[in-house]
């Protein structure tokens, strides 16, 4: 199987910005307008996002529900780590996630706001991101999800679908997921509803059309402006992110 070569290396920022606006507008008729409203409590979002890494949504949810059966957050901190790992066994890598979850909860418990994250609503975005990414188990994607989904802050979570599609289309050059957060945020409008809709609809598009191994370019609404399709036609190779 062939693999992707370098895509869209040279493209000015204003073109990248216009391309992202076009992608958002083009995906809306396919997947709908997506009003921004929190799907779960902030700390639930934070812990569930840690559980979601390399895990299906159903297993993530099952792991979270069983974790909460251990008791309140203090009880989860106090529980033996092996017991926490067992409770989240439906999630992949429970042995590494359990101590990260406990360490994150300890850091929150000992912070001025405790388990209440609502102060993030008013903190400057940069400081809010720093607070969350300073937590032991929290990376930029998780921090961005909590800030955007729960507090309508203008940040852009880059998951595997967002990363793959924005790279294939040519909104960013090929780079790692961490760097993609910065590169995309630099050219996206600082408007939470826009960022939310684009994120959610790219996720849908990645699940249904632009999959990592077998993108269905023939039925893709982004085809007319997609660098990968221009380069490979309907034989876009499997993604190696
Ligand atoms: S044209 Fe193909 S590679 Fe490009 S976004 Fe659509 S499905 Fe993905």
UniProtKB/TrEMBL annotation:
The UniProt keyword set, sorted, is: Endonuclease, Hydrolase, Nuclease
In terms of superkingdom, the source organism counts as Bacteria
UniProt keyword Nuclease, yes or no: yes
The reply on keyword Protease is no
GO: which molecular function terms?
endonuclease activity
A Pfam family found in this protein is: HhH-GPD
Q: Where is the HhH-GPD domain?
A: 51-208
Instruction: Show the PANTHER family listed in the entry.
Output: HYPOTHETICAL BASE EXCISION DNA REPAIR PROTEIN (EUROFUNG), PTHR47203
Kindly provide the name given to this protein in its UniProt entry: Endonuclease III
Question: What species is this protein from?
Answer: Deinococcus aquaticus
Organism lineage reads as: Bacteria, Thermotogati, Deinococcota, Deinococci, Deinococcales
């Amino acid at each position: 199987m062939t693999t992707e070569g370098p895509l869209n290396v040279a493209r000015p920022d204003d073109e990248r910005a216009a391309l992202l606006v076009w992608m958002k507008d083009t995906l809306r008729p396919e997947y709908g307008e997506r009003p921004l409203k929190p799907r779960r409590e902030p700390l639930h979002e934070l812990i569930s996002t840690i559980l979601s890494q390399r895990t299906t949504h159903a297993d993530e949810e099952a792991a979270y529900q069983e974790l909460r059966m251990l008791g309140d957050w203090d009880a989860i901190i106090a529980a033996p780590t092996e017991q926490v790992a067992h409770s989240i066994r439906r999630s992949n890598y429970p042995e590494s996630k359990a101590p990260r979850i406990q360490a994150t909860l300890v850091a929150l418990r000992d912070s001025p706001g405790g388990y209440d994250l609502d102060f993030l609503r008013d903190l400057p975005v940069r400081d809010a991101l720093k607070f969350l990414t300073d937590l032991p188990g929290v990376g930029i994607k998780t921090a961005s999800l909590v800030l955007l989904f729960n507090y309508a802050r203008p940040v852009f979570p880059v998951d595997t679908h967002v990363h793959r599609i924005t790279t294939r289309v040519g909104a960013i050059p090929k780079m790692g997921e961490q760097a993609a957060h910065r590169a995309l945020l630099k050219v996206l409008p600082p408007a939470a509803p826009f960022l939310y809709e684009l994120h959610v609809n790219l996720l849908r598009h990645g699940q249904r059309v632009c999959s990592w191994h077998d993108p269905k370019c023939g039925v893709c609404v982004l085809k007319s402006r997609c660098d990968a399709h221009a380069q490979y036609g309907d034989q876009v190779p499997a993604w190696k992110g």
